[in-house]
Amino acid sequence: MREQSAGSGRLIDAHCHIDLFDNPAHVVAEAEAAGVYTIAVTNAPSVFRHTAALVKDCRYVRAAVGLHPELVHSHGRQVEKMPPLLQETRYVGEIGLDYTTIDQAVRRAQRDVLGKILTWCAEYKDKVLTLHSRRAAADTVEAVGANYPGSVILHWFSGSSGELERAVSYGMYFSVNLSMVGSQKGQALISRMPVDRVITETDGPFVKHGPQPAKPIHTQSVIEGLATLWHTSPDEASDTVFANFKRLLRGSSVGGR
Ligand code: MN
Q1: Neighbours of 23 (CB within 10 A)
Q2: Cα–Cα distance for residue pair 233/223, rounded to 1 Å
Q3: Which residues are 116's β-sheet partners?
Q4: What is the 17 CA–ligand 1 centroid distance (Å)?
Q5: How many Å lie between the centroid of ligand 1 and the Cα of residue 15?
Q6: Which residues does residue 213 pair with via DSSP β-bridges, in sequence order?
Q7: What domains can be seen in the chain, in order of their start residue?
Q8: How much distance in Å is there from the Cα of 31 to the middle of ligand 1?
Q9: What protein residues have CB closer than 5 angstroms to ion ligand 1?
Q10: How many whole angstroms from 88 Cα to the centroid of ligand 1?
């Protein structure tokens, strides 16, 4: 792995569960020192302020408010705590749908919760959403729709190529991680993603970097995987991802750097 230059401010981790690491403050300090722009997602409204406090003085790390679809069956009522928290951050996640469950009532509850969150976020017009869509890509993409006012990132996308094309046509971005660049299925999907819609994530601590939970600085290894897939240099791949992230923050899905 190439050495990470301190404070470079060029790496992007668009989806990291910093609050679930053993030492979140250390992970934050390390991301700040290395200048890794990081979206610290959270899984329930009740834990948002903890992460927000952890990153309040950060230049590079931002806290997102979320309600993970796999927690909807047990914590779905917490969605009502979300509106005031949406005033405190531009970033929203982890939200979405997960159809690993075959319980139709639970799936319906997930769609209801996601629908509420999307409706609230649409009023702001500038929210950045990081969405989970395991086994539910079609419904997740359609829940957001073609003309959503805000920036939409499909995190760890694993749908079909048709679903991927639909998401692209709706202006969505994809955040890809070490597990994806290291697997045949992930590589096949990445090769179908327009280069100008790809950004990087770790999904740490769930995804590992070797034996360790992946931390924001490890997005350099995702960049190296992308460089191989794109037949370019890591520096070029990093420039592309950085330009994509800047464009996403401007709320645009149209190319041009
Ligand atoms: Mn996640």
Answers
A1: 10
A2: 9
A3: none
A4: 6
A5: 6
A6: 208
A7: 11-251 (3.20.20.140)
A8: 18
A9: 94, 203
A10: 21
Q: How far is the CA of 203 from the centre of ligand 1 (A)?
A: 5
Contact assessment for residue 130 and residue 151, using Cβ atoms and an 8 Å cutoff: no
Is residue 203 a contact partner of residue 20, using CB atoms and an 8 Å limit? Answer: no
**Both structure tokens of 184:** 């045949």
Around Cβ 148, how many Cβ atoms within 10 Å?
Answer: 18
* Residue 204 CA to ligand 1 centre (angstroms): 7
Distance from residue 158's CA to the centre of ligand 1 (Å): 13
Token pair listed for 17 = 């569960």
Ligand 1 centroid distance, CA of 240 (Å): 23
- Which of these, 202, 236, 250, 195, lies nearest to 222 by C-alpha position? 202
| pLDDT the model gives residue 9 | 62
Give the chain's radius of gyration (CA, Å).
17
| Contacts (Cβ under 8 Å, ≥6 apart) of 135 | 98, 99, 100, 158
Calculate how far, in angstroms, residue 155's C-alpha sits from the geometric centre of ligand 1: 8
Instruction: Report the chain (257 residues): mean pLDDT per 10 consecutive residues.
Output: 52 98 98 97 98 97 98 97 98 98 98 98 96 98 96 98 98 98 97 98 96 97 98 97 96 57
pLDDT of residue 251: 84
Whole-number Å distance, alpha carbon 123 to ligand 1 midpoint, is 25
C-alpha of residue 54 to centroid of ligand 1, in Å:
19
Q: How far is the CA of 206 from the centre of ligand 1 (A)?
A: 7
